[in-house]
Design a protein that fits this description.
- The complex is a heterodimer of chains A (113) and B (115).
- Chain A contains no helices and eleven strands.
- Chain A is mostly beta strands and 113 residues long.
- Chain B has no helices and twelve strands.
- With 115 residues, chain B is mostly beta strands.
- In chain B, strand 10 and strand 11 form a beta hairpin.
- Chain B is globular and about 45 Å long.
- The chains are: A mainly beta (113), B mainly beta (115).
Chain lengths: 113, 115
């Protein structure tokens, strides 16, 4: 299917475990982003990527790792999950150029117990 | 550093009333881009509009209108004759021009339209 997809949609994990959230887009967009959404905080940028093998920290990068070996994929890894990382995570992509909007995935609801 | 402030955390209005959602931004760039997104109860993020810093014309799309004022660094969103289906969280966002193309969002305004 064309578009941007996230998997899994829901995930429950235990404190201290490693978990990876997947993001895949079929448009060959240059830019990809990871946000987390928490009540009272809106959408906060975790990491973003301008192209394959180029990643940058966003507003709240601590505790997260990203990679981008292929243009279409941008996985987000929580190396040792903590309860404070319980959130809804959104992946987004946009074409090159800053005059374009970002397109969002459906979100992944992650619960760390 | 870029910043977006949506001071209204939550607004409730009765159906058919007009409502304005405020957005104030901060940036050092002269070239930048502003966006509004809607997040209905189903949770997806829906793009509504983008505006570049060189275009200060107001925009109208049906019941929606946007007022961009560089002098006050504001990009406000008005819904005319609100409907229950407008109930959602609305986000304002900013992207600066140049190499760094990240998009920073405000905290959002939750809008309740009461029947």
């Amino acid at each position: 299917d064309a578009g941007i997809t996230q998997s899994p949609r829901y995930k429950i994990t235990e404190t201290g475990r490693q978990v990876t959230l997947m993001c895949h887009q079929t448009w060959s967009h240059s830019y990809m982003f990871w946000y987390r959404q928490d009540l009272g905080h809106g959408l906060r940028l975790i990491y973003y990527s301008a192209a394959a093998d180029i990643t940058d920290k966003g507003e709240v990068p601590d505790g997260y790792v990203v990679s981008r070996s292929k243009t279409e994929n941008f996985p987000l890894t929580l190396e040792s999950a903590t309860r404070s990382q319980t959130s809804v995570y959104f992946c987004a992509s946009r074409p090159g150029g800053t005059n374009t909007e970002a397109f969002f995935g459906q979100g992944t609801r992650l619960t760390v117990v | 550093a870029q910043k977006v402030t949506q001071a209204q955390t939550e607004i409730s209005v009765v159906e058919k009333e007009d409502v304005t959602l405020d957005c104030v931004y901060e940036t050092r760039d002269t070239t930048y881009y502003l966006f509004w997104y809607k997040q209905p109860p189903s949770g997806e993020l829906v793009f509504l509009i983008r505006r570049n810093s060189f275009d200060e014309q107001n925009e109208i799309s049906g019941r929606y209108s946007w007022n961009f004022q560089k002098s006050t660094s504001s990009f406000n969103f008005t819904i005319t004759a609100s409907q229950v289906v407008d109930s959602a969280v609305y986000f304002c966002a900013l992207s600066e021009g140049g190499r760094d193309d990240k998009i920073i969002f405000g905290k959002g305004t939750r809008l309740h339209i009461l029947p």
